[in-house]
Amino acid sequence: MANVLYDSLFAAHRDNSKDFLRQPGQPSRSYSAFIKQAAQIANALSELGLQPGDRVAVQVNKSCEALALYAACIQSGCIFLPLNTAYTAREVSYFVTDAEPSLIVCDESYSDQLSDVAKKANAALLTLSSDGSGTLMELTTTQANTFPTVERNGEDVAAILYTSGTTGRSKGAMLTHTNLLSNSQTLLTYWQFSSADVLLHALPIYHTHGLFVACNIMLLAGGTMIFLPGFKTEEVLAELPNATTLMGVPTFYTRLLADPRLNRNLVDHMRLFISGSAPLLAETHEVFEQRTGQRILERYGMTETNMNTSNPYDGERKAGTVGFALPGVEIKIRDPQSGAEMNTGDIGVLEVRGPNVFSGYWRMPEKTAEELKEDGFFITGDLAKKDADGYIQIVGRDKDLIISGGFNIYPKELELLLDDQDNVLESAVVAAPHPDFGEGIVAFLVAENDKTIDIERIQEFMSDSLANFKRPKIYRVISELPRNTMGKVQKNALRDQVKEVFAT
Ligand code: AMP
Q1: For the domain that residue 434 is a member of, what is the CATH number?
Q2: How far apart are CA 253 and CA 256, in angstroms?
Q3: Which of residues 123, 152, 181 is at a domain's end?
Q4: Nearest C-alpha to atom 5 of ligand 1 is from which residue?
Q5: What atom of ligand 1 comes closest to residue 303's alpha carbon?
Q6: Of all protein residues, whose CA lies closest to atom 1 belonging to ligand 1?
Q7: Which of 401, 183, 169, 156 is nearest to 304 (CA)?
Q8: C-alpha–C-alpha distance, residues 342 and 387, integer Å
Q9: Which of 107, 151, 270, 349 is most open to solvent, judged by the fewest CB atoms within 10 Å of its CB?
């Protein structure tokens, strides 16, 4: 019997005694121990009465056991539904009402808050803490370490991941066995992963980056992961000598650069640094290369589509770009009104088609039809353009587009100029409601360490460089940009701060 994802990712490792997961200060977990533990969990799920297709909602801290729960869900045909650990009980309640899981697994410390949520939803509630303790693992101790793998074909849903939902309700993206497998196979080859690789894993595992990109590739490659609970500069610096590759969000790289111990000697042996999930500033790319001699490889993807584009492994990794469409993935940059493809250098909405693209939003056929077109192209909502060499640049989200006095303004164009100003570390440009223009532009600036930003000089520079309608009307200096755990700037939080600034 076949189970598309389980057979490729997990089955082959049953007798593999090699280290799969290393955690500093703790015993390593071999592939075989991991696979056996996953089978024990699968037996426990089955004993609880879970059936193939049932959802298992998981809000736990990162641990080997949490990853084994993912494997157990795949093996038993259940749908894995990881949730960001930052969500409150009220938010989890929405996901539970929407997804109707049969089981919720949470950290011991959240179980009181979630017990009502589980009761209302008629779901079982088990706990799993980051040290592997809790009621879930208690149920596994007497279970057999083999499990009859449930048949699943390529179109069956393996996981549901909720999108961050910054503009309205969060949507559950249904990812099939084929979506996940095809993407990790493509990336394995494209980025030349092999069993010799040791991946330094400091990402969360409730998100597509840390879970599917990182873990699925390493399972396919048969490599080893150094599994850190999260990103701490100290720990990452200490483990870099033991790794061959690092996958990170841009903030990993800026934090590493802020530490003088990051140097060429420390990372000379590294094969690959990858960045994604948020834009890596061209400057970070360049400074990282000057300091280490390594060129970060930037790629682009999203929850609904897995990975879509990547800079080349061999060949020019161009700073400020996300490279080319991955093999088997088609990308079109279109005019959102006419649907016509944009010319080189012109900005449009990026659409993507391929085996990586999800099958739809859970119980939202209308939303699915709006964004996933009949011809198979998914409208990502990302604004992008291609340069003369075909490299794709992401210039923002279409919802971030500012329309002031009827003119379109791309925040990225302004942010690139602002980032280059003296003493400016970074910037974010948003719109606030304006009585005359519809929207007025507000620029948030963060200063470099202890330095002062000369707003007047910046205003002069912007006046010389940009048409009047594109110039920020208000500048605000703040200590840091609000970011989520994946390093994405939370523009909604900034918009909230200034929603009344132009009120008359
Ligand atoms: P998520 O679904 O949380 O993975 O977020 C996906 C979104 O993150 C994309 O639609 C992009 O807006 C953004 N994103 C991911 N990778 C990159 C990148 N390399 N550069 C710029 N934006 C990115």
Answers
A1: 3.30.300.30
A2: 5
A3: 152
A4: 302
A5: 2
A6: 302
A7: 183
A8: 11
A9: 151
Domain extent for 117: 4-152
Distance from Cα 276 to the centre of ligand 1, integer Å: 7
Single-letter amino acid code for the residue at 88:
T
- Residue 44 lies inside a defined structural domain of this protein: yes
Helices 250-257 and 282-292 cross at an angle (nearest 10°) of 50
- The verdict on residue 385 lying in a domain is no
Q: Which of 107, 132, 152 marks a domain boundary? A: 152
CA-based R_g, the chain, Å = 23
- Decide if 190 is inside a domain: no
Q: Which of 370, 371, 443 is nearest to 402 (CA)?
A: 443
Q: Which atom of ligand 1 is nearest to the CA of 397?
A: 12
What's the domain count of the chain? Answer: 2
- Say if 300 falls within a structural domain: no
Ligand 1, CB within 6 Å, residue ranges: 163-164, 208, 276-279, 298, 300-303, 322, 380, 382, 394, 397, 486
Q: Which atom of ligand 1 is nearest to the CA of 164?
A: 3
> Tens of pLDDT along the chain (504 residues)?
599 999 999 999 999 999 999 999 999 999 999 999 999 999 999 999 999 999 999 999 999 999 999 999 999 999 999 999 988 888 899 999 999 999 999 999 999 999 999 999 999 999 999 999 999 999 999 999 999 999 999 999 999 999 875 556 789 999 999 999 999 999 999 999 999 999 999 999 999 999 999 999 999 999 999 999 999 999 999 999 999 999 999 989 999 999 999 999 999 999 999 999 988 989 899 999 999 999 999 999 999 999 999 999 999 999 999 999 999 999 999 998 899 999 999 999 999 999 999 999 999 999 999 999 999 999 999 999 999 999 999 998 888 888 887 778 889 889 999 999 999 999 999 999 988 788 999 999 999 988 999 999 999 999 988 888 899 999 999 999 999 888 889 999 999 999 999 986
pTM above threshold 0.70: yes
Residue 94 is part of a domain; what is its CATH number? 3.40.50.12780
Structure tokens at 438: 């519809």
